[in-house]
Automatic annotation (TrEMBL):
HAMAP family xrefs: Adenylate_kinase_Adk (MF_00235)
Residue ranges occupied by any Adenylate kinase active site lid domain in the UniProt entry: 131-166
GO molecular function list: AMP kinase activity; ATP binding
Keywords: Kinase, Nucleotide-binding, Transferase
Organism name: freshwater metagenome
SUPFAM superfamilies registered for this protein in UniProt: P-loop containing nucleoside triphosphate hydrolases
Coiled-coil portions: none
Gene3D superfamilies given in the database record: P-loop containing nucleotide triphosphate hydrolases (3.40.50.300)
Protein name: Unannotated protein
Matching NCBIfam families: adk (TIGR01351), PRK00279.1-2 (NF001380), PRK00279.1-3 (NF001381), PRK14527.1 (NF011100)
Length: 225
C-alpha cells in the first residue's frame, strides 16, 4: 500500500497536464488514463458514449458526471492499476472526486497526491491557440513553444497534425469559465485533505517535469519511512 502512486493531474486546460503525464508514466511506469482522450476516441468510434458526449465537448462544457464516473471507477479497479495510476483530466467536479474516493476506499486504497499545474488565463489562451495534435497518437505540439521538426507533421510517426475543434478561439473562453466554476473548487478539496502539490506551469516542460519528479520522490520516501 505505501509504495502505491495513485495520482491525479489537475489544472486548467492547456496547463501541460498531458505533456507531463506522457513523461511521468515513463518515469514511474504507471498506467495513464486521460478522460479527454477516452472521450475523443468514443466520438471517433461513434459509440453511444461518443454520441452523447460530442455536443458538450464541442461547446467546451463538461460531459455530465454520470457519463464519465463509471469509466474511471472501472479503470482504476483493473489489475494494471494495482500499484498505482495517473489520471489526467479526472476528476473535474467535486462529485467526480467523491466517486473516485469512494471507489478507492472500497479497494482499501486512496489518492496519493493531486498534482496541480497552475497557469494564468492569458497563458492558457496562448497555449490552447497554438496547440496541435497528431491525428494518430494524440501526441501534442505547440506552434511556438514546441514545434515539430517539419511543419504540420508528427515527429514520432509522420502523421498529420491538426487543431482540436475545442481549441478554437470561440470555445477556449467557455472552457476557461467552466474550469473556474466547476473544476477549480477541487483545489480547495484536495488542499483540505493534505493531498495537493502545486507546480508552476509557466516554467519550461523540463522544469515542470523535474519539479514533479522531485516532489514524487520525496512523497515516496515519506510514505516508506
Ligand atoms: P493540457 O493537457 O493541460 O490541456 P497540454 O499538455 O496539451 O495541456 O499542453 C497544452 C499546449 O501547451 C501544447 O501545445 C503543449 O505543447 C504546450 N506546452 C505544454 N507544456 C508547456 C510548457 N511548460 N511550456 C510551453 N508550452 C507547453
Ligand atoms: P484539456 O486538458 O485541454 O482541458 P481534455 O482533453 O482533458 O482537455 O478534455 C476535453 C473535453 O472533454 C472537455 O472540455 C470536456 O468536454 C470533456 N471531458 C474530459 N474529461 C472530463 C471529465 N472528467 N468530466 C467531464 N468532461 C470531461
Amino acid at each position: 500500500m505505501s509504495q502505491e502512486l495513485n495520482l491525479i493531474l489537475l489544472g486548467p486546460p492547456g496547463a501541460g497536464k498531458g505533456t507531463q503525464a506522457a513523461r511521468l508514466v515513463q518515469d514511474f511506469r504507471l498506467p495513464w488514463a486521460s478522460t479527454g482522450d477516452m472521450l475523443r476516441a468514443a466520438v471517433t468510434e461513434g459509440s453511444d458514449l461518443g454520441l452523447k458526449a460530442k455536443g458538450f465537448m464541442d461547446s467546451g462544457a463538461l460531459v455530465p458526471d454520470d457519463l464519465i464516473v463509471d469509466l474511471i471507477v472501472e479503470r482504476v479497479a483493473q489489475e494494471d492499476c494495482e500499484d498505482g495510476f495517473l489520471l489526467d483530466g479526472y476528476p473535474r467536479t467535486i462529485p467526480q472526486a467523491d466517486a473516485l474516493a469512494e471507489a478507492l476506499e472500497g479497494l482499501d486504497r486512496k489518492v496519493t497526491a493531486a498534482l496541480l499545474v497552475e497557469l494564468d488565463d492569458e497563458e492558457v489562451i496562448r497555449r490552447l491557440s497554438g496547440r496541435r495534435v497528431c491525428v494518430t497518437s494524440g501526441h501534442g505540439y505547440h506552434l511556438d513553444f514546441d514545434p515539430p521538426k517539419h511543419e504540420g507533421v508528427c515527429d514520432q510517426d509522420g502523421s498529420r497534425l491538426v487543431q482540436r475543434d475545442d481549441d478554437k478561439a470561440e470555445v477556449i473562453e467557455n472552457r476557461l469559465e467552466v474550469y473556474h466554476a466547476q473544476t477549480e473548487p477541487l483545489v480547495e478539496y484536495f488542499e483540505s485533505r493534505g493531498l495537493l502539490r502545486r507546480f508552476d506551469g509557466s516554467r519550461s516542460q523540463t522544469e515542470v517535469h523535474d519539479h514533479i519528479r522531485a516532489a514524487l520522490a520525496t512523497l515516496r520516501l515519506e510514505e516508506s519511512a
